[in-house]
Amino acid sequence: MADSNLKGVGTALVTPFTHGIIDDDALGKIINYNISEGVNFLVPLGTTGETSTLTTKECKQVMHTVLESNNGRLPIVCGMFAKNNTKAVIDAIKEYDFEGIHSILLASPYYNKPSQAGLIAHFRSIADISPVPVILYNVPSRTSVNINAETTLALAEHPNIIAIKEASGDFNLIMSVLKHKPADFIVLSGDDPITMPMIACGSSGVISVISNAFPGIFSESVNAALRGDYKKAKSLNDKLLDVHKWLYIEGNPVGIKSALSIMGFGSDEVRLPLVSLSESNRKNLEMAIKGLY
Question: In order of start, what are the domains of the chain with their CATH numbers?
Fold first, then answer.
């Protein structure tokens, strides 16, 4: 049976900063807001969490805040182990205390540009030793390497690889995986704007950026789609369509942090080499947000 804990909306949490320091209070508020608005699981320390700019100590600080704020209410998927050195990932996992963590999210190795055989060996080596399940993350726009359908399906046979977050945007690939995957292997959208059509094709939900700021609307839309109520799902999804553009126009998490700051959840501060959303695009985002209500 598929893991029902990973159905619906998982929020790819931002890491809030104030004057360069992690803002634990803001992170806690965002977590409580998301839980109260109906998201299904939490995903700290992914791309949206700016994990590539965090030290190991800061990653542990984020996880402490997430575990404390969540207090066992939702499953937690940790993204901090997505590195491009297989041995370093394995060593880090062996040393880590996974109490309270449901699973780990692993993007394909960046910069090295491994072959498909290399991807299979990388993910299997990690899954073999991980004490918690592994979720693959296919995001070729960031890694320059696509996990093709055949590779995903081969990895799906591993008993400790339970899901994939698909952000390739390639519907032929996605539909091939959905058609041929084992029944208990989960496919999640990694692109908020195409979550609804992916669910129509058989996916189980999404690991989401927009749900940081709009967890209620987005969760209601996704869950309506999962029930087969596409009329309601489309109506709610249409409300957010004009917001998506401004969230990504200068990169992620630049836009979502600006949205959160507009809504009173901390500052819009990001770490270099990212910079905060330009004033003109922030005004456009503000207008789009006002149009939701």
Answer: 4-229 (3.20.20.70)
